[in-house]
TrEMBL record:
Main location per the UniProt record: cytoplasm
Cited PROSITE patterns: TPR
UniProt KW keywords: Acetylation, Coiled coil, Cytoplasm, Endoplasmic reticulum, Isopeptide bond, Phosphoprotein, Repeat, Ribonucleoprotein, Signal recognition particle, TPR repeat, Ubl conjugation
InterPro entries to which the protein is assigned, alphabetical: Signal_recog_part_SRP72_RNA-bd, SRP72, SRP72_TPR-like, TPR-like_helical_dom_sf, TPR_rpt
Chain spans, region Disordered: 503-642
Coiled coil location: 58-113
PANTHER family: SIGNAL RECOGNITION PARTICLE 72 (PTHR14094), SIGNAL RECOGNITION PARTICLE SUBUNIT SRP72 (PTHR14094:SF9)
Keyword match Hydrolase: no
Listed Low complexity bias regions: 588-605
Source organism per UniProt: Aptenodytes patagonicus (King penguin)
Name by which UniProt lists this protein: Signal recognition particle subunit SRP72
SUPFAM superfamilies xref list: TPR-like (SSF48452)
Length: 642
């Protein structure tokens, strides 16, 4: 037909529809754009917008729909889908509500499913509390979307129940479905199981979540968006551990078409995790590149700047990191509080506690918060700057006074936080010896609650060192001892299980024991002595040695060891040493007498006689003794020891 009449409108429309049915959206859009004179927006607006939508040209599709002169039902359906992809959830919700209200056909269930998906997206990404739309959860898609909305509200246990219900609905629906492949079943169940694993991760059950995530990845689903989300969640579980597994999972987030399947916040979270992973794997250039790209896309977002500062800290450039954070705080005052908290943490890590305190005190919206006051007082106390700590208390108390004066007229009881700050300030001053300064705080507290005995006691204690007369006057307000007495059973208290002292119960005394108790109460009972054991060779006829308890050397009859006759001091001591009589044994020193040998057992030399045996014919002095010792050793060895 087109060969005969190339501008035939009906033939061109049929060709475009056939190309769309075959999935050739680019070719179909080319046909529409080539014949713009014939195929005007009134004639083929829906087909053109649909091709642009499927080619992910969402902005162009929106313009095409809005330029159509007549808004048909199918254009409104497509308009709702386009708004959802553009994340304009409020407009999308209004469009679907209008469609459901003004149409009655077999597609009503699909429209309700889309409406519940919009509500879930609002709850998850915009933290909007959804209205009760009265949607009956008759299908597994509606149950799944309801579970997603509950996750956005933080109702995790309820969301898990909804997901299990959605799984049961899907398995039941398989009975009535035909020509459903196993891959289709696994793909649908993978989406539900992925959301279950996410709930487990949020609940802190990371091991169960990781196991379920890995099971889904092993199935190799064709949905690249699902795989990217699961891979990203596994990376968040790994953190700075198991970085090699995280590097593998990053490849799944880079698959083609992922950017068209996920929302902007999901894609942003994936990019943040990529930058953090680059930091953990010491890829400094890659980390800086990713964080700079994120900052250019979202100039007011905190995370890119924090990642850059963390990378600088890893490179030991703390001063540069603080400067970077300071610049961001100056440019974006709305986010300055969180940035300054990070700067203070860096200063503390460097040991500059005083500078950290100055940064914290510059955060005006947090100065009066109890947590901030507590942190500043602790830090100043660590630096022994008590005056600054008291000043922090004073400023916080004044802020609450001004706030209360601006909110109400006339006298009104102070808030619990205000009174708590006054009490903490008083206790701090008393602890550091500032009793005069603590008196005004204690008086304020007692004025608010005159029945508070503890505060009154503190006030009297403080006045006793400053103004004793005032302390006496105040002491009259203390309750009397009669009112303070407590009805306590002392015996029951002493005999209780937790008592440190338990009174012993007196035993019954009868007969002789009673007389002994009355007459000889101070006499101690004698213990029986055990009979000592006698030695085996004890002879009762022989009188024992009275000195038997003394060591042998200390006994009167001890004469010492008998020395060997031929034993001499020669040879004693270390090798080469000489004894005291060695000079007397040297024959060369006596010129008048002939050479003689020393007499065994004596230290002095003996005069020469004619009967003296020459030294060469004498026996060695120590020979007999050595022989005896060797024999003794052999005898001992033969016994085999004790």
């Amino acid at each position: 037909v087109l060969q005969i009449s190339k501008d035939d409108v009906t033939a061109l429309q049929c060709k475009v529809v056939c190309l769309i049915q075959n999935g050739n959206f680019k070719e179909a859009l080319g046909v529409i754009n080539t014949h713009t004179k014939v195929l005007t927006s009134d004639v083929i607006a829906f087909e053109k917008a649909y091709c642009e939508y499927r080619l992910n040209r969402i902005e162009n599709a929106l313009k095409t729909i809005q330029s159509a002169s007549q808004q048909t039902d199918k254009l409104k359906e497509l308009y709702g889908q386009v708004l959802y992809r553009l994340e304009r959830y409020d407009d999308c919700l209004a469009a679907y509500r209008d469609l459901i209200r003004n149409s009655q056909d077999e597609y009503e269930e699909e429209r309700k499913t889309n409406l519940s998906a919009v509500v879930a997206a609002q709850s998850t990404w915009e933290k909007v509390m959804p209205d009760d739309l009265g949607l009956r959860e008759a299908t597994y898609e509606l149950c799944y979307n309801s579970a997603c909305a509950l996750i956005g509200q933080g109702k995790l246990n309820e969301a898990m129940k909804k997901l299990r219900k959605a799984e049961a609905f899907f398995l039941f629906a398989l009975i009535f479905l035909q020509d459903v492949t196993e891959e289709d079943i696994e793909a649908e169940l993978a989406i539900i199981h992925g959301q279950m694993a996410y709930i487990m991760q949020l609940q802190g059950r990371t091991e169960d979540a990781l196991q379920l995530y890995n099971q889904i990845i092993k199935l190799k689903p064709t949905d690249v968006g699902l795989l990217a989300v699961i891979a990203n969640n596994i990376i968040t579980i790994n953190k700075d551990q198991n970085v090699f597994d995280s590097k593998k999972k990053v490849k799944l987030t880079n698959a083609e078409g992922v950017e068209h399947k996920l929302s902007k916040k999901q894609l942003q979270a994936i990019e943040f995790n990529k930058a953090l992973l680059a930091m953990y794997t010491n890829q400094a250039d890659q980390c800086r590149k990713l964080s700079a790209s994120l900052q250019s896309q979202s100039p007011e977002h905190l995370l890119p700047v924090l990642i850059q500062a963390a990378q600088l800290c890893r490179e030991k450039q703390h001063a540069k990191a603080v400067g970077l954070l300071q610049d961001f705080a100056d440019q974006h005052p709305a986010n300055a509080a969180e940035i300054k908290l990070t700067m203070a943490q860096l200063k503390i890590a460097q040991g500059s506690v005083t500078k950290a305190c100055m940064i914290l005190r510059s955060i005006e919206e947090l100065q009066h918060k109890p947590g901030m006051v507590s942190a500043l007082v602790t830090m100043y106390s660590h630096e022994e700057d008590i005056d600054s700590a008291i000043e922090v208390f004073t400023q916080a108390i004044q802020w609450y006074q001004q706030f209360q004066a601006s909110q109400t007229r006339g006298a009104k009881p102070k808030s619990p936080v205000h009174l708590s700050l006054i009490r903490e300030a008083a206790n701090f001053k008393l602890k550091h010896g500032r009793k005069k300064e603590a008196i005004s705080d204690l008086e304020e507290l007692w004025k608010q609650n005159p029945k508070d005995v503890h505060t009154l006691a503190q006030l009297i204690s403080a006045y006793s060192l400053v103004d004793p007369e005032k302390a006496k006057v105040l002491s009259k307000h203390l309750p009397s001892s009669d009112t303070m007495s407590l009805k306590v059973d002392v015996d029951a208290l002493e005999n209780s299980h937790g008592a440190t002292y338990v009174r012993k119960k007196a035993g019954k005394l009868t007969g002789d024991n009673q007389q002994k108790e009355q007459g000889q109460g101070d006499v101690k009972k004698k213990k029986k002595k055990k009979k000592g054991k006698l030695p085996k060779n004890y002879d009762p006829k022989v009188t024992p040695d009275p000195e038997r308890w003394l060591p042998m050397r200390e006994r009167s009859y001890y004469r010492g060891r008998k020395k060997g006759k031929k034993k001499d001091q020669v040879g004693k001591g270390t090798q080469g040493s000489t004894t005291a009589g060695s000079s007397e044994l040297d024959a060369s020193r006596t010129a008048s007498s002939p050479p003689t040998s020393p007499r065994p057992g004596s230290a002095a030399a003996v005069s020469a006689t004619s009967n003296v045996i020459p030294p060469r014919h004498q026996k060695p002095a120590g020979a007999p003794a050595t022989k005896k010792k060797q024999q003794q050793k052999k005898k001992k060895g033969a016994k085999g020891g004790w």
